[in-house]
Structure formats: C-alpha cells, structure tokens
Design a protein that fits this description.
By secondary structure, the chain is mostly helical. The protein folds into 2 domains: 33 residues; 97 residues, Arc Repressor Mutant, subunit A (Orthogonal Bundle), CATH 1.10.10. It has 5 helices and 3 strands; from the N terminus they run H-H-H-E-H-H-E-E. A 3-stranded antiparallel beta sheet has the order 1-3-2. A hairpin with a 2-residue loop joins strand 2 and strand 3. Helix 2 runs antiparallel to helix 3 and helix 3 packs across helix 5. The longest helix is centred in the first third of the chain and has 29 residues.
Length: 150
C-alpha cells in the first residue's frame, strides 16, 4: 500500500472517531432536554482587557505594538505609541515628529496597519488620553489607560 493511502486511512479513522464522539454528545444532550444549550453566543474579536500594570515597557517597540494594538483604532494606537515612548510616565513629553517617524516605520499589517494621520492626535486629545502643552509635543493624561476598555 502506498504511503499516502496509509496516512489517508489514519486521518479517516480519526475523523470517524471524532464524529462518533460528537454523535454521542448530541445523544446525551437530546436525552437531557433540561440542560440549557448555548447556541448563539457572540464572541468578541478581541479577548483582552489588558490591565495597564501588565504592560511591559521594556519590550521592544515592534513587539509591544504587535501585542497590544489588535482591535484598536488610530487614536488608541497613537496613545499606545506615546505610552511606550514615555514608558507610561505622565510627565514626559514626546515630539510629534518622533511619534510620526516611529509610526511610519511600523505601517505593516501586523503592526499599526496604516499610515500616520494627524487626525489621530485630535481624537486622542478629545478623549483626554493625551495632551499637548506646546504645539508638536504630547504627553499622556491619567485617563490614557481607557484605550484598553472595549
């Protein structure tokens, strides 16, 4: 028997075993109609509320961004980038040119996924996540951790 047929047979046996297990589970559920079935449960795309204390600012920037930006919009990503650059320190400021430069080095789909847009700065300020004391320099506000809420 050729090697491919033996592997195919093994896969078929495993699938049949899984089918038998599912059929048995269905039979048990049908037998006990009092057990509630979860049929239409919405699953969140992002299963992370990240606690800010769990943020490791010593992680390299690209890894940090890749880990935390899933499901975030531009203004949240902007705030997260400032948080990494300042290591979460509310008193440190970062020039916009540095933020924009770092952002545009991480436009890849797995990282920030888009070109920098200055609209993100306005949206982040409106939500009180960042502030600017002088033009072109941003610092975090105490409420910046809200970027991780829903």
């Amino acid at each position: 028997m050729p090697k491919g047929n033996k592997e195919t047979q093994q896969v078929l046996q495993r699938i049949e075993g899984a089918r038998d297990a599912l059929n048995e589970a269905l039979r048990l559920l049908k037998k006990d109609q009092s057990a509630p079935l979860i049929t239409d449960r919405k699953v969140s795309k992002s299963t992370r509320p990240v606690v800010s204390s769990a943020l490791d600012f010593t992680t390299p920037m690209r890894a940090f961004v890749k880990k935390h930006t899933k499901g975030m919009n531009g203004s949240k990503k902007f705030t997260l980038l400032i948080a990494h650059l300042t290591k979460g320190d509310l008193s440190k400021t970062v020039p916009l040119s540095q933020i924009e430069s770092r952002w545009n080095k991480m436009k890849g789909k797995g990282l920030l996924g888009m070109k920098f847009n200055r609209l993100y700065t306005s949206q982040a300020r409106e939500r009180d996540w960042v502030s600017t004391a002088k033009t072109g320099a941003y610092h975090l506000r105490p409420s910046w951790k809200a970027i991780f809420d829903g």
